[in-house]
Amino acid sequence: MTARASDRARYDRATAHLDAPLAIVDLDAFDANADDLLRRAGGKPVRVASKSVRCRALLERVLAKEGFAGIMSFTLAESLWLARSGFDDVLLAYPSADRAGFAELTADPKLASAVSVMVDDVAQLDLIDAARGDGREVVRVCLELDTALRLLGGRVRVGARRSPLHSPAEVADLARAVSRRPGFKVVGIMAYEGHIAGVGDSLAGRPLRSRAIRLMQAAARRELVERRAAVVRAVRAVVPDLEYVNGGGTGSVQSTAAEDAVTEIAAGSGLYVPRLFDNYTSFSGRPAALFAQPVVRRPGVGVVTVLGGGYPASGAAGPDRLPVPYLPEGLRYDPQEGPGEVQTPLLGSPADDLLIGDKVWFRHAKAGELCERFDSLHLVEGDRVTATVPTYRGEGHTFL
Length: 400
Known about the structure:
Layout: H1 3-14, E1 22-26, H2 27-41, E2 46-49, H3 56-63, E3 68-73, H4 76-84, E4 90-92, H5 99-107, H6 109-114, E5 115-119, H7 122-131, E6 139-144, E7 149-151, E8 156-158, H8 168-179, E9 184-191, H9 194-197, H10 207-238, E10 244-247, H11 253-257, E11 264-267, H12 269-272, E12 289-300, E13 303-307, E14 324-327, E15 332-333, E16 343-347, E17 359-363, E18 376-381, E19 384-390
Parallel strand pairs: 1-18, 2-3, 2-11, 3-4, 4-5, 5-6, 6-9, 9-10, 10-11
Antiparallel strand pairs: 1-12, 7-8, 12-13, 12-17, 13-16, 14-17, 15-16, 18-19
Helix pairs in contact: 5-7, 8-10
């Protein structure tokens, strides 16, 4: 029996008493992935990206491990909710225009001390000040550096369009503006190199493209190492007591951790290991989060139909944004239909061994987005479900 076949047998036994659709997290795989992130971080603390987990119980589990410290959140409302729930170090990774949230943040000493907000423009400070009302708490500010690689005088850009702050002088100027403004304090710098951390460099069947990606990423790393160090020096000249410099992502943990300028690493997807993280030469993880759909039809030889399953991931639309049929091995989508909102036909010889009511196990393309589809996660240890915990959605929160 292959390892994947063995996993399927375990998951089927563990959830035999449960009807699909359902989602699980294999805790043995989850913990092994967490340990691997720590190993690759080389002793630097790992801040957990909550958007890749979206389950408070699992955030608590990973943060209980020595070496993990703090949360990187994705909305201000989520940040405040987590801080009220007892998480005392929450870095909001994206600028916000949530005026009600800023009014709450600036009026509550506990929230203001626990949450840092992302800023890359003075206009964002203006919005926060306008939202304060009677709130007079100091807002902890993190500045975001644009990590994109610019070539040919800026005519070619490789990397996500995030912060407008690219040069050391630009980041230092904003640090100076924040420091001079009452009610704000610069505490950190964030620089997420998504074109390195979030792009696989070993694409099956595409050796030339894989080599091109590796060459691009090597060039981007060399440029960013020097520029990030210069940015940190420039900002520390303005803010000597800077608390942290955050960088990295699941796909670049070890290379980012090797930089002296970086004090902590961000990672989250590496805990669940969705399908987009299968294509890396720098690491391999164990799929930990899966969802199951029930077989509801057998239209013919080599075909079964499962309920639902059309859960595409965010990003540029394409086949790589679709969930992948994982267990049993050998199933594939009908190219004329793909995964559907209500039903999904699956082709392949394993279909002939599936009965009505059997489970087909899928992996989502991304990590935490799976939790927007399910109220709960069944936690599997060995061949048993040992706990069932709510996702954000199960606690009544869909922050985006």
